[in-house]
Write a structure and sequence with these properties.
Layout lengths: L1 H20 L10 E7 L6 H9 L8 E8 L5 H11 L3 E7 L4 H9 L6 E3 L6 E2 L3 H11 L5 E10 L5 E3 L11 E4 L14 E4 H4 L13 H12 L4 E14 L6 H4 L4 H4 L1 H18 L4 H21 L8 H17 L2 H6 L7 H9 L6 E2 L2 E8 L4 E9 L5 E5 L2 E3 L3 E9 L2 E12 L4 E5 L2 E2 L1 E3 L11 H13 L6 H6 L9
Parallel strand pairs: 1-2, 1-4, 2-3, 6-10, 12-20
Antiparallel strand pairs: 4-9, 5-10, 6-7, 6-9, 8-10, 11-13, 12-13, 13-17, 14-15, 14-18, 16-17, 18-19
């Protein structure tokens, strides 16, 4: 109980410090405008209203512009009733359903705050959200872009979970130059705060549906801004609702045609090519922004497992062509070093090698299983294009694999890579040559941190297993039954 009381006192002291650092309240207009696109979220609006009314900030400096996008529930009536009683300016607009981007664009025309953000009406923010931003930009007047800390809120349980971008907020409230700090990327417009005068005539691309219209807006804002110095505010928490009924735009858009057609070409590719024309090269922060979004396409495919791709036919072929053009704009070192979200090694290989027409194979093979009873080891490597030639040697003597098979790796409606799975005797040193080139032997597929074993080290590891040495957990997991599949 004492610890909780101490924490409450610390929060109260922090709120008081923020209030002391706020700008004078005699400004001509609001400091913040929240533009919110509203569609069939009447059941969530009371929580949204409450999170804004509970801000520890001078509410006379807040404006909310809520645009009802042709809702079929009571959202418009709920908004109008709230506007009559809210302790700050609330502008309620309505239009026929035209999509989130169009609704935000309509709202921007009525925003008058110095700073603007685009909070979704089914989400909430913590009480210190606005005061944290106000204090930070007062300390750093050169900043024109602020990213807030998104926290996942599981509607079904009420539990909070870390967002994949959470690692960018581990330093607390930090000033980051995106042109220098390559492990940071800007948040989308939803969880970002921007200077309205710099927004100018920039508007959301209404063609980017079902996703990325907010990421595109934020990126284009930064491309036009005088600096990419950005505030990453751990103290400003944005609670993103993961709906229990899976009905949000992101949750329902996983297989939408636009996600594989318009979004990749008019969103990711257009951003990269426009940036190259503007600067002569695509900045790393923008490459990482696109890579982050692409990673979700690959994880969706992996989640399909052996069932089917999310796309096939002409749409799949078109997406693969666009993905190849996107990959051509990405620097290989950026793909290899990306850590904002885990990129599986085969995703990297597909991006770097699997979208063209040439032949390629991994420069190493993975040794991930050893059968102690039969003295055989499993080797795996991956290739693209025509099957390569293989040679095996043990103690310099050629040998043939005991078992072998080839596994297809299908992504986006086509086979983009193959994996060779081979069992060979491991009574001594083992060498694998592919197309005449000796492959390094590694323990796993992590290509950016390959631990090449070498023939002697590999033999020593197997010898230790033979002698009954106590294996590590990883080693124990490798001692599995020989795969019975033969060529």
């Amino acid at each position: 109980m004492g610890a909780a009381t101490e924490t409450d006192q610390q929060h109260q002291q922090e709120r008081e410090r923020r209030q002391e650092r706020q700008q004078p309240t005699d400004a001509a207009g609001p400091s913040f405008s929240i533009v919110s696109a509203v569609y069939d979220v009447a059941r969530y609006l009371p929580e949204f209203f409450a999170s804004l009314e509970q801000q520890d900030y001078d509410l006379s400096l807040l404006q909310v512009v809520a645009v009802d996008d042709g809702s079929t529930d009571d959202s418009l009536a709920v908004l109008r009733a709230w506007a009559q009683r809210a302790p700050f300016e609330v502008v309620v607009l309505t239009q026929e359903n035209a999509g989130q981007a169009a609704a935000r664009n309509a709202g921007l025309e009525h925003a008058t705050g110095d700073w603007v953000t685009f909070t979704d009406p089914d989400d909430t923010v913590n009480a210190g959200y606005l005061s944290s931003v106000a204090a930070f930009v007062a300390r750093h007047p050169e900043v024109c872009f602020v990213s807030t800390n998104m926290v996942l809120r599981m509607e079904a349980t009420g539990a909070l979970a870390k967002h994949p971008r959470a690692k960018m907020f581990t330093q607390g409230d930090a000033l980051v130059d995106l042109d220098v700090a390559t492990s940071f990327i800007p948040n989308s417009a939803t969880t970002s705060v921007m200077r309205r005068d710099l927004v100018g005539d920039l508007r959301f691309n209404h063609r980017l549906r079902p996703n990325f219209e907010d990421g595109d807006f934020a990126a284009r804002y930064l491309m036009a801004a005088p600096t990419r110095r950005t505030g990453f505010l751990a103290s400003a928490e944005y609670y993103y609702r993961k709906r229990a009924d899976q009905s949000s735009t992101l949750q329902t858009g996983i297989s939408a045609t636009g996600r594989y057609g318009v979004v990749p070409r008019e969103g990711y590719l257009a951003l990269l090519t426009d940036a190259r024309r503007q600067w002569g090269a695509v900045p790393l922060w923008l490459q990482n922004t696109v890579l982050y979004d692409l990673s979700w396409y690959f994880s969706s495919e992996d989640a399909m497992a052996s069932s089917a791709s999310a796309i096939d036919g002409d749409l799949g072929a078109s997406f693969r062509r666009t993905l190849r053009e996107i990959a051509d704009e990405l620097t290989p070192d950026v793909v290899d070093s990306f850590t904002i979200r885990k990129l599986q090694p085969h995703w990297r290989d597909i991006l770097l090698h699997g979208l063209g027409t040439g032949d390629w194979h991994t420069p190493y093979a993975v040794t991930d299983r050893y059968d102690r009873a039969t003295h055989v080891v499993r080797l795996r490597y991956r290739y693209i294009g025509e099957p390569p030639t293989e040679q095996f040697r043990s103690r310099g003597v050629p040998l043939a694999p005991l078992h072998a098979k080839t596994r297809r790796m299908d992504f986006f409606g086509a086979t983009v890579m193959w994996e060779r799975i081979l069992w060979v005797p491991a009574t001594g040193t083992v060498e694998l040559l592919v197309d005449g080139v000796r492959l390094d032997l590694a323990e796993d597929w992590e290509t950016n941190h390959v631990r090449a074993l070498g023939a002697k080290a590999l033999a020593a590891r197997f010898r230790k297993a033979e002698q009954g040495g106590r294996p590590s957990k990883r080693e124990a997991a490798r001692r599995l039954t020989v795969d019975p599949v033969r060529v």
